[in-house]
Amino acid sequence: MANKTFSEVQDFLKGKVILVANRGIPARRICRSIRERFDAVAAMTATDVDKTAPAASTAQELMLLGTDPRAYLDIDRIIDKAKQRGVVGIHPGWGFASEDTRFPQRCKEAGITFIGATAEAMNLLGNKVQAREVARKLGIPVVPGSEGAVDIPTARQLINEIGLPIMLKAEGGGGGRGIFAIHNEADLEDAFFKASTMAQASFGNPRLFVEKFLADVRHIEIQVIADMYGNVFAFDERDCTVQRNHQKLIEITPSPWPGMTKNLRDRLKDYSRRLVRAVGYHSLATVEFLVTPDGTPYLIEVNTRLQVEHGITECRYGIDLVEEQIAVAFGAELRYREESQRPSYWAMQVRINCENPQDNFAPNSGLISRYVSPGGPGVRLDSNISAGYEFPANYDSAGALLISYATDWEKVLGITERALSEYVIGGIKTTIPFFRQVIKHPLFKQGGINTNFIATHPELMVYTDLAPEGERLAKLVAEISAKGFNPYVQLGEYRSSSTPCLGPFEPVLPPISTAARRQPSPYPQGDRMATLDYIRDSGLVHFTDTTTRDLTQSNSGNRLRLAEDRLMGPYLDNAGFFSLENGGGAHFHVAMLANMTYPFTEAKEWNRFAPKTLKQLLVRSTNVLGYTPQPRNLMLKTGEMICDHYQVVRCFDFLNHVENMRPIAEVVMDRKDVIFQPAISMSWAKGFDVKHYLGVTEAMLRMVGDIMGASPKEASRHIILGLKDMAGVCPPRFMDELVKALRKAWPELVLHYHRHYTDGLFVPSCGAAAKAGAHIIDVGLGSSVRSYGQGDVLATMAYIEDELGLKCNLDKNAIRDANFVCKQIMPYYDRYCAPYFQGIDYDVTRHGMPGGATSSSQEGAMKQGYIHLLPYMLKFLEGTRQIVRYHDVTPGSQITWNTAFLAVTGAWKRGGEDEVRYLLEVLGQVTRTPEKELTDEMRRARLNIYQDCNDAFRNLLQGKFGKLPLGFPADWVYQSAFGSDWKSAMAARTEASPLESLAEVNLAAEEKACAEILKRKPNDEEFVLYLNHPADALKTIQFKSKFGDPNNLPLHVWFEGLKVGQDLYFNDSSGKPHHLLLLSISTPNDAGISICRYVLDSEFMSCEVQVRQPSGNGAKSTLMADTANKYHVAAPSNGDLWVMYVHPGDVVKAGEELFNVSIMKQEKAVLAPIDGMVKRVLKTADFKENKQMVSVREGELIVELGPVPRVCGNEACGQPIPMDNIAFCPYCGVRVS
């Protein structure tokens, strides 16, 4: 009887049902061949996870398997359903049950054709131990290793025989899973357990065997196909050398390796043909080898199924292997013959996995927000991805297979590079950007790599994986819109999606004439001495505008953005100001904390759109741009960057300790184009009189003169002296007296006066200072003036000119234009950023809280539920300022406020308002009564005044911030603050600058640490930001990477987002225009997630937004970890917990493995973050014992640790002591220390 032909099989299968027992890419690929060639009905299995997946659309029928994601492994159920439907053949695809010998056997028993190897052949070749035995008999070289499956003792014996390293491999495995490399014998037992468990979970067979680990090798495989009549065809090799964790990433045919000779190719083909013939094999199979540099091959395994990389062989030969496999399974004679089937192309496949290569290829899942597939000549794509698809966490990470083919290797590389540049998958991490790195690498192009290529070339991981900025900004708009508020401005949930909006921000901008733009500034640029000479000799009162820094710092929490600065800046630049204060202080921090902007990039922008006027920045002496003293080398590094972007540097110290300013002074005075402005921190109180401030000025001039090598008198010509009244308490009469005294003592010293509006006396105080001879006054635009910042420039000018008869030189019309622009901006900041408490507060002259701290501190008391105690706190402030004498400016204002807050709330907690009143009575007695007249009761009672203070106050008392301006307080203050340790605290006091004791920062180590977090080297600005504010700098850098520059979004969108149906036109940073239309925001699901759908530039997109906490039945039983709790250990991603190593009561060390989660078929060890004792284990699993995995959610609390307990010192016991208040071990009775 003649052999069956391909055509006969076609006729037989027409209209019949062939089932693909698989999912995703393999199911889609196989269904295509079934439909194209055989006109059969393509059916596909599908769980509930997959029934609406992109791949499912290729099938003509779906065989639904229900809710269990692992149902693809339920062979009996699949076959039962197949029989009911009348299926004639089942194709297993790859993965899942494709190599389970029970599958072909059960199909045979059910009368269904299994499209693959027989059970017998699969057992002989698919089982790695059996395949090695067959190969040995045929004289085919195999990797040295065990004769069969091993246990741990046998594995140890083999290590002694063949040496380390070795590999533990799953007997029934494939796809690189269940492989563990052992380099240290101590790791054997743990690795054996894991490998065996993973093998059981993946292949239903826990048995392992051992192979010698070969390091410098290539992975080469031969595709073969055989029919039932003894015909075997071997195709040219596929080079699978590019791997990670023993799993293939890139496959190429033919191999570009120069060592792949015709002789070696023929030899590998011959081995492969002999293997399949020896066992009577008929179907597709892949014979895999490791080849040493000298061309010596070793068989490692035979895969008895369709391979993931079969497509490149199809492209090389112009064939369809799947249709041939189907035909052979139904008895057709193989159509391929060596003499007629010739290769024509080179081909390469890259596996587009949903993984993050920069995080050790950690798999990830989630919503595909955007999808653009590549195309064009020489491109083939097999995928299971589309826009809007929720890529599941239940299965492996394979998203697509991208194949490029051409007539030569160079062209294939070019097509692949082009296709990868076209391919866009948004919403999750993929291997696309990593492959762009790989194919550009010279070694890869030359074919000169081995299987360790990725592991030994870390530079492949140095790349930035960013979507186009327009797409990232659209996602930010979607998030703000869905939440109803912007979570990044650090204002809490200041509105909801139903809160009425202010409406679109569409500012009207008055024109600036060309003549005005060309009019130069009267202030000489780039020459410090020329600028100071002009100010001294002009006979004018000069002004600095603080609108975009200190004024809105006080009134809007510093949240005025660069986007709005760009609107106001050009008008301010043409008004004739001496300087524009646009940086430093809290603004520097909040630029990152809430505005998500690089501060020095912001400064660079200012110098571009407002080029004529000097830019001014505020520095907090040793704190520089932060809140705690910085070492000298960090001050210098930050100072150098400041001088590159600003032309006036104002530096103050809240203690007026001038040595704290020295490093900044050194940097600035070294620059002839930057003006140094040391500033006196001022208060109006006993001891802080004109004589005192003359002494401070003398010290500042001596310090500057020492740096210059000049006298204090000469130094006075080279700087500006700032007079900084940050609380707004110094009355006009005091300013008149002080300024006159300073002008008399140093006639050539330029004076710059800064004060706040808090007490309501801004204008007369500024007028008094100007009349007395102050050269420069800080002011702001009237439309931004509220209560706590500076006063209105036009009102101040009117008073100075019309009432005092002095001359000014500002362009009032330019100021009016700037004011008009600002007037359109401020309503948004007033609505969302204004302080809770507003208005003039003349009592600031008593309690002394500066600027914005007046409101923010009092608001803090209200939010913490202590508003009823606020009058007492202010009264405490008034009293304590008379005991511990310094200036209430940053960081002193925070120290003072916290001291008052803690003292009053502490007293209230102990005894209610009576106790608080008594505290203040004692404080009043102490401040009003001479020491000799105090009663013994008051002397004892005053020791409780500071009993609740914090470490910052104690550090202040010991001089750790610097020398207190009026000396250390009385001894009893130390008794009160330090308790029984007061004498040692006093002995440790110092009047030296903290710079003398602070160790320098290891800049190289810090840069390395930053680079490790960012996965790239930080640029110069990022590094300086990181050094000053590590956490917020990283958050800003990561925000910019995630979303782009938020200053490209209009003001109303930044605060309010869009409503459904609204659209937005915006430009990205390159100037490219975009159009965004918000289509819908779904109701949150039980996980609290809404789906936002929108159109960006005519392309439909979507993204997930967490809008509220999880709710519903699922949430009730799921406890999420608190990310701020160091003792909470969470599931790292959605997946399956398969082994728990710890139990309640266990003591663990940091870095010890607690449990292991299978995430998309990759294991993830979860380690103890700190030393501790296991307090709770909320979920547990032991797959090896019961073959059950437990589903976990990303962020779900799995293990809760507690502090490390005391341990019994008895070595024979060593048990943890369960309670703190026991003296004897409850286990052995030994006394514990």
Automatic annotation (TrEMBL):
Record CDD domains: biotinyl_domain
Gene Ontology terms for molecular function: ATP binding; metal ion binding; pyruvate carboxylase activity
Domain Biotin carboxylation residues, every copy: 14-459
A single cellular component GO annotation: cytoplasm
Keyword Nucleotide-binding recorded: yes
Class of this enzyme: ligase
Identification of the protein by name: pyruvate carboxylase
Source organism of this protein record: bioreactor metagenome
Gene: ddl_5
